[in-house]
Amino acid sequence: MTSWRKLGIVIRPDPDTWWGRTHAMLPAPENVEGSLWRIWWGGRNDQNQSHIGWSLIDLETPDVELERAKEPELTPGRLGSFDDNGVLPSCVIRTGGETRLYYIGFKPGGTTRMDLYGGLAIRPDGADRFVRWSEAPIIERCKANPFINTAPWVVKTPMGWRMYYVAGVEWVHADLPRYNIQIATSRDGLDWQRDGRVAIDFEPGENALARPYVWHDGEMWRMWFASKGEAYRLQEAVSADGLNWTRLDPPGLEPGEGEDSDMVEYAVVLTHKGQRIVFYNGNDYGKGGVLAAVEE
């Protein structure tokens, strides 16, 4: 099992910032140049609504926050839209002359606690900020996925675009959804086709599989995700083709003391000089901030 050295909280919420008083949730990386990365995250205001901002991190010193957004890059949508009560980053990818931010849109539920969707905002090269591609979600309820559809992680392959996303399979009761990880395909990364194909399904004792993070290591496709029984724990899987996945033993980044004593989830894995560096959330879904750990 891999050994990890924990660096503690790297990105903290700021009580003096109107849009990020609590939480720094769901880190999503964007390479700026070399070892410099922008880590996108969601902070919450006084109404508990999430907004998307970022922090600048140099992987040479991954425990140091160099800079952060003064104002949010993406705010909740217009009243009545799928994301009118909160937005969270999920995946940032550059293609052609633009950068795409695939994100999570949140809306309070009616008979259930919440509704979650996948959205898309685009920033053309030279533009100051992201603009919604559509005020409608890019993944929402459909025949194959009649419940939650969210947390899109998107990759480009020689066969086209592929999305790994969180798909609800049922609500056990009004406060307890069950969701696994499924696969969607697209020719352009904008319009998506889904048929209910499962990438990662439940194992005994699991109720939820969350936030897939997928990359190709030069030989295999790899996925880190979080599974929840009593509380979230990190898991890992591999695939030769990106479609058929095999679980491995957990990656070894387990709860410790302090901000990750109960939960470990929403991890992203970067590599610098042959060493893996993980940014992740801990207790209470990132209420304390984004933590980091380095491979030893």
Write the layout of secondary structure elements.
Elements: E1 4-11, E2 22-33, E3 36-44, E4 50-58, E5 65-68, E6 87-95, E7 98-108, E8 114-124, E9 131-132, E10 149-157, E11 160-173, E12 176-186, E13 193-200, E14 208-216, E15 221-228, E16 232-239, E17 246-247, E18 265-272, E19 275-281, H1 283-286, E20 290-295
Antiparallel strand pairs: 1-20, 2-3, 3-4, 4-5, 6-7, 7-8, 8-9, 10-11, 11-12, 12-13, 14-15, 15-16, 16-17, 18-19, 19-20
Explain what you see.
- The termini are close together.
- The protein contains 1 helix and 20 strands.
- 42% of the residues are buried.
- With 296 residues, the protein is mainly beta.
- It has a single domain, classed as Tachylectin-2, Chain A.
- The model has no long low-confidence stretch (mean pLDDT 97).
- The protein is globular, with a radius of gyration of 18 Å.
- The strands form 5 sheets. Strands 1-20-19-18 form a 4-stranded antiparallel sheet. The chain has a 4-stranded antiparallel sheet with strand order 2-3-4-5, with no helix packed on it.
- InterPro entries: Glyco_hydro_beta-prop_sf.
- This is Glycosyl hydrolase family 32 N-terminal domain-containing protein.
List keywords for this structure.
four-stranded antiparallel beta sheet; 1 helix; single chain; 296 residues; Tachylectin-2, Chain A; mainly beta
Average pLDDT metric: 97
What structural class do helix, strand and pairing data support?
Answer: mainly beta
The number of helices is 1
Give the beta-strand count.
20
H/E element order: EEEEEEEEEEEEEEEEEEEHE
Give a short account of the largest sheet: 4 strands, antiparallel
Provide the gyration radius in Å: 18 Å
The third-level CATH topology is: Tachylectin-2, Chain A
Q: State the name of the first-level CATH class.
A: Mainly Beta
Strand order, largest beta sheet: 1-20-19-18
> What gap, in angstroms, lies between the N and C termini?
11 Å
User: What is the number of domains?
Assistant: 1
Low-confidence stretches: none
Shape descriptor: globular
The percentage helix is under 10%
CATH architecture: 5 Propeller
Task: Give the name of the CATH superfamily.
Answer: Glycosyl hydrolase domain, family 43
Proportion of residues in β-strands: over 45%
